[in-house]
Amino acid sequence: MSVRLFPAESVCPLCLKKTEAAITVGNDGFIHMEKSCPDHGFFDTLLWEGDVVSYLSWANDDVEGNAPKTAIPAEKGCPLDCGLCTEHRSEACCVLLELTKRCNLHCPVCFASAGAGTETDLSLDEIVRQYDWLMAHGGPYNIQLSGGEPTVRDDLDEIIRLGRERGFTYFQLNTNGVRIAEEDGYARRLKEMGVSCVFLQFDGCRDEINAALRGKALFETKCRAIEACADAGLPVVLVPVIAPGINEEDIGDIIRFALDRHPHVRGVHFQPLSYFGRCEVKARELEKKCCESAQTQWRITIPRMLKKIEEQTDGLIQAADFHGGGAESPYCSFHASYRIKDGVLKALKKRTRSCCCAQPSSEAMNFVSQQWGNTDPSFPDAEGDVSSLDEFLRQAITDTFTVSGMLFQDAWNLDLKRLKRCYIMEADSEKGMVPFCAYNLTDINGKALYRK
Questions:
Q1: Dist. CA 240–CA 156, nearest whole Å
Q2: How buried is residue 382: exposed, middle or buried, by Cβ count under 10 Å (0-12/13-18/19+)?
Q3: Adjacent-strand bridge partners of 94
Q4: pLDDT digits over 224-266, tens only?
Q5: Is residue 49 within 8 Å of 43, Cβ to Cβ?
Q6: Number of alpha carbons in the 13 Å side-chain half-sphere of residue 391
Q7: Taking CA 74 as the corner, what is the angle to CA 68 and CA 76, rounded to the nearest 5 degrees?
Q8: In what order do the strands lie in the sheet with 31-37?
Q9: What is the reported pTM?
Q10: Considering all CA atoms of the chain, what is the largest pairwise distance in Å, rounded to the nearest integer?
Q11: Contacts for 366 with CB less than 8 Å, ≥ 6 apart
């Protein structure tokens, strides 16, 4: 029998209606979310593969972020009033502009269900309206050019120029890398356009992984994209989706691959699989099996990720190096920074106010642009005699490496307390800004609250 720890609020995975929930210690000794829908019954979802002590200690630095400077009144209550509403507890840090629904791949795990027949582009006029709205509501923010696949558009230079004219300075390109790999000179053009960093979809070094998660063999394509970015001086962060039974035993290989290509590759940002968009096929399997073992098999948690990182890197990177977020809920993310010197990794101090997962959101924006972008960063952990500031800044770029991850919530494990701390936003023509996990939330039949 489970033991109740805290009350919570969530939604029903079948109908998305708000439900009362509880954070519990399950029969397996791990942390779960239990909830009941009056129409669809009881649900039990794994949250944390560790005991209650490790769960509570992860939140030692659990401090509230800065509330949004502008917000709409809360009427229906979270998660139905996003815009952002007055119940939200964190201002935005990164904002995704979904420039197109077109894509040159058809990934089985696409959260946006891109390339599904509704292949439209956001007009330049609408992009300008969204830029202006963002600036009037707390901007500038770090902009993520996303989709779909944003590189299928031929006007990224104009989109970035329009953003810069309005005061935005950091433009991250979320991409599968296909065009970068296949079109000579395209990476250099992206650098000239003002792209700050390439967030490259990279799920592993085996083509079986790419075939399962992306629908085709892509490893050599990814390697060519990274080489092209390196030649252009365009920083890259590898972004693997980690799926149970597919590539969770390849985590160490991904980190080593990135380290071998440092400093062109600045780090790895893991995203354990969340069950929304086209990923709902696995959620259906979960619902049908309706047993704790199935939940455990298909839910990757922070402790599971950190254990595998340590084991698969033979202790080069240790679980104790990591900490959770500050502006967002600590249970949404993990992060560690390292200095590389003479081939040796040294973990930098855990700092609650100087990482991409720290509060307030303005500091998170600065960290992202400094650690992953091509701007001059300020380096927080100086060692030894650094006589030249220029040399000091150069070392900050060439000597640091980050390993981080974000666990997006789906209808099975959504905790509204966590959602209210989200500072990764989707720009929306009607709502303005919607937290990422609310925007992409889908029920078991693929119905979304916000995404159209």
A1: 24
A2: exposed
A3: 142, 424
A4: 999 999 999 999 999 999 998 899 999 999 999 999 999 999 9
A5: no
A6: 6
A7: 140
A8: 3-11, 18-25, 31-37, 41-48
A9: 0.89
A10: 68
A11: none
Is residue 137 classed as helix, strand or coil in its secondary structure? coil
| pLDDT tens, residue by residue, 323-371 | 997 678 999 999 999 999 877 899 998 754 433 433 344 555 555 555 5
Instruction: Report the DSSP pairing between strands 31-37 and 18-25.
Output: antiparallel
Structure tokens at 291: 């047993």
Residue whose C-alpha is closest to residue 191's, from 230, 249, 245? 230
Distance linking the first and last C-alpha atoms of the chain: 41
Task: Give the C-alpha separation, 13 to 89, whole Å.
Answer: 24
Radius of gyration for the chain, computed over Cα atoms and rounded to the nearest angstrom:
21
The closest alpha carbon to 359, from 392, 326, 333, 398, belongs to 326
| Residues constituting the chain | 452
Alpha-carbon distance 201 to 196, whole Å? 16
CB-based contacts of 326: which residues, under 8 Å, 6+ apart?
A: 61, 63, 65, 352, 353, 355, 357, 358, 359
Cβ 397 vs Cβ 375: under 8 Å: no
**CA 44 to CA 23: how far, in whole Å?**
10
Q: Give the angle subtended at the CA of 159 by the CAs of 154 and 160, to the nearest 5°.
A: 115
Helices within 105-263 (DSSP H only): 124-136, 156-165, 178-182, 186-193, 207-214, 219-232, 251-260
Name the phi and psi angles at 354, rounded to 5: -145, 30
DSSP state of 287: H
CA angle 352, 174, 258 (to 5 degrees): 65
3-state SS, one letter per residue, for 229-296? HHHHCCCEEEECEECCCCCCCCHHHHHHHHHHCCCCEEEEEEEECCCCHHHHHHHHHHHHHCCHHHHH
Torsion of CA 86, 83, 329, 63, to 10 degrees: -30
